[in-house]
Structure formats: structure tokens, C-alpha cells
Amino acid sequence: MGSIESAFRFESYKIDHVLFQMKRIIQLLETTGNIDPKAWKFSVSIGKPIYSKSHKKYISILRAGLLLMPDTQESEQIKEEEVEPLVTCEVNISGLFSVEEGRLDKEIELNILKIQLPSLLLPYARSAITSILANAGFGSVILPLVNMHEVAKRCKDELEVHEID
User: Fold this and answer.
1) How many Å apart are CA 31 and CA 134, to the nearest integer?
2) Sequence spans of domains, the chain
């Protein structure tokens, strides 16, 4: 019986930050059912990975957020950066991954760390946000697919590994 062992192993994850805020306005409280998906703004970013030398484990960090912005089409005088969201939902997830040293080239290991590990955490973030919004009375929200390669490119300056102990 042969088996394949991965150089990286996903051990666990924890949601380490949750934020939900909603403006108390009548129009929003009166809203029932699902809100138009185009009204929501979804964002994802990758946090600075941490490597524990003594444990030979990486901590990968993913941040996901969703904003419901007010409709500003009627007022052209308002600049988009001045508009505050009606709803803010943020979730940060930390995942723990063990690694066997020396089994992979450093370049491959960094690619896995910077793209693949956050990609493994994304479904948990999506699920948490969807659950929070459903429980907050906003119905089901379908979050868009995310190109993690593009996210990693955008966050490349933040992806230098921080080593501890």
C-alpha cells in the first residue's frame, strides 16, 4: 500500500478577527430578501506569513471583507471616497501548515506559501461572511470567485516571511 505524503500539511485554521457593522437606517432595516450582488464590494488580501523555525510550521493569513455601499448615482456631488458603507463585514483567518524542510525547492515553497495556502483558507472566509450576513438578516450573498495569483501580486510587498523562534 503506497501513499503520497505532502511536504505541506494543512493542520488547522481559526477565525481570529470578525467585524460586522451596519448603519441603523430605515431603508436598510426594511430591506428583506437578497440584495443585488452588484451592490456589494468584496475584497481579499493576504497577510504577512509567519514561519516558526522550532515548530517547522507556517501561519498563513487571509483577510476578506464585504461592503454594502449606498447608491450614489442620484447625487453626483458626492465623491466615492467620501461615502461610508451601509454594511461592513470583515473576517481574518489564520491557518497553520506544517512543512518538511528540504523536500521542496525554496521557490516552490514560497509559491505554495504565498498563493496556495491562502487559497485553502478562502473558502472558510467566504463561508464565515456568508453565514454572518445570513444571520444578520441579509439573505444569501453569493461572493465572487477570486484569482489568488492576482491577489498575491497585489500583496507582494507584504508577503515576506516573518520568522519567529
Assistant:
1) 13
2) 8-164
- Fold designation for 8-164: Bacterial Protein-export protein SecB (3.10.420)
Q: Using CA of residue 133, residue 138, residue 140, residue 146, what is the dihedral sign?
A: negative
What residues does 45 pair with on adjacent strands?
Answer: 63
Centroid of chain to Cα 98: 21
pTM: 0.84
Q: How far apart, in whole angstroms, are the C-alpha atoms of residue 3 and residue 68?
A: 47
pLDDT average, residue stretch 112-116? 85
Phi, psi dihedrals of residue 110, rounded to the nearest 5°: -65, -35
Please check whether residue 121 is in contact with residue 47, taking contact to mean a CB–CB distance below 8 angstroms: no
- 121: how many CB neighbours lie within 10 A of its CB? 25
